[in-house]
């Protein structure tokens, strides 16, 4: 038997040595020992010649040490842990319930896309493993790690708003774990980039609408409201933007590229066109060339500006 970091072990209390604490082993006498400091006893006083359960970790001097604190994760297990700190040379440090933090190396994240890196307070699904020296380390959980614990989303979820966490990020969208509530651990989901109001990062908690419950029990999600509700909200946003513009005009129309629309309004081109259509139907805007104007200020523009814009 080995004294392995990241594991829970039932060990024999061999002796107490003041002012250090207790020394534990797999039996009364033979075999390796591990130190249980007084500060790791959490107010309890283990009795010599009794058996206790402890968690093993490396202390600041790289020595295997025992604690009576209960960890949120153990070796080989998966858990959702909160990001407590970040170091640009090492990575993210996660709270694991024992007064020490678990390192998630920076190499787990795309170096060219720092906008998807977690922030302090985000929660990550990780698996505990060992580095080459046998020290505790975290890696991001993959679909195969999540799959044994998830359930098939019920058809009743269709159209409902759910909360969840981003588990991985791809070029065209993000994988998620949708909170299961009383149903259990959760269901797997996917959010396409086109349905996002803003980019999402790994570990970020979100609220999204279930747009499809697939045959395999996974769900498709959208951060945006339904088309009708979204159309009203988008129209209000564009109207507010126009009211703040000089002369009530903007150099965006249904002819503007999808990339420019996404960059400026965080909307897909189809959603942008639906919102413009509503505003035009309501008589609030007009389009001339590549410009969109508020009708209320159309006749109030300076003559030289109106002529210049109308010629574009």
TrEMBL record:
<dbReference type="InterPro" id="IPR014464">
    <property type="entry name" value="CvfB_fam"/>
</dbReference>
<dbReference type="InterPro" id="IPR040764">
    <property type="entry name" value="CvfB_WH"/>
</dbReference>
<dbReference type="InterPro" id="IPR039566">
    <property type="entry name" value="CvfB_S1_st"/>
</dbReference>
<dbReference type="InterPro" id="IPR012340">
    <property type="entry name" value="NA-bd_OB-fold"/>
</dbReference>
<dbReference type="Pfam" id="PF13509">
    <property type="entry name" value="S1_2"/>
</dbReference>
<dbReference type="InterPro" id="IPR048588">
    <property type="entry name" value="CvfB_S1_2nd"/>
</dbReference>
<dbReference type="InterPro" id="IPR003029">
    <property type="entry name" value="S1_domain"/>
</dbReference>
<dbReference type="InterPro" id="IPR036390">
    <property type="entry name" value="WH_DNA-bd_sf"/>
</dbReference>
<dbReference type="InterPro" id="IPR011991">
    <property type="entry name" value="ArsR-like_HTH"/>
</dbReference>
<protein>
    <submittedName>
        <fullName>MarR family transcriptional regulator</fullName>
    </submittedName>
</protein>
<dbReference type="InterPro" id="IPR036388">
    <property type="entry name" value="WH-like_DNA-bd_sf"/>
</dbReference>
<comment type="similarity">
    <text>Belongs to the CvfB family.</text>
</comment>
<dbReference type="GO" id="GO:0003677">
    <property type="term" value="F:DNA binding"/>
</dbReference>
<feature type="domain" description="S1 motif">
    <location>
        <begin position="159"/>
        <end position="224"/>
    </location>
</feature>
<dbReference type="Pfam" id="PF17783">
    <property type="entry name" value="WHD_CvfB"/>
</dbReference>
<dbReference type="Pfam" id="PF21191">
    <property type="entry name" value="CvfB_1st"/>
</dbReference>
<keyword id="KW-0238">DNA-binding</keyword>
């Amino acid at each position: 038997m080995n004294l392995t970091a990241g594991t829970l072990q039932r060990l024999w209390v061999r002796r107490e040595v003041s002012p250090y604490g207790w020394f534990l082993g797999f039996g009364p006498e033979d075999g390796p020992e591990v130190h249980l400091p007084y500060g790791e006893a959490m107010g309890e006083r283990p009795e010599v010649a009794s058996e206790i359960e402890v968690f093993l970790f490396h202390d600041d001097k790289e020595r295997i040490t025992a604690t009576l604190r209960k960890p949120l994760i153990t070796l080989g297990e998966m858990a959702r842990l909160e990001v407590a700190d970040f170091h640009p040379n090492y990575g993210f440090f996660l709270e694991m319930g024992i007064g020490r933090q678990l390192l998630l190396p920076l190499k787990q994240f795309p170096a060219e896309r720092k906008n998807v890196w977690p922030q302090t307070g985000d929660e990550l699904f990780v698996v505990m493993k060992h580095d080459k020296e046998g020290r505790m380390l975290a890696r991001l959980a993959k679909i195969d790690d999540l799959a044994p614990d998830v359930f098939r989303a019920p058809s009743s979820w269709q159209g409902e708003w759910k909360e969840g966490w981003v588990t991985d990020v791809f070029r065209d969208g993000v994988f998620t774990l949708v909170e299961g509530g009383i149903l259990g651990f959760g269901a797997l989901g996917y959010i396409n980039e086109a349905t996002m109001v803003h980019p999402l990062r790994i570990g970020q908690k979100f609220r999204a609408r279930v747009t499809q419950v697939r045959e395999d029990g996974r769900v498709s999600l959208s951060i945006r409201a339904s088309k009708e509700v979204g159309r009203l909200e988008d129209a209000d946003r564009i109207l507010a933007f126009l009211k703040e513009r000089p002369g009530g005009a903007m150099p965006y129309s249904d002819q503007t590229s999808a990339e420019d629309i996404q960059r400026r309004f965080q909307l897909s081109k189809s959603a942008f066109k639906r919102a413009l259509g509503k505003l035009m139907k309501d008589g609030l805007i007009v389009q001339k060339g590549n410009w969109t104007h508020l009708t209320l200020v159309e006749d109030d523009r300076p003559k030289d500006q109106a002529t210049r814009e109308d010629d574009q």
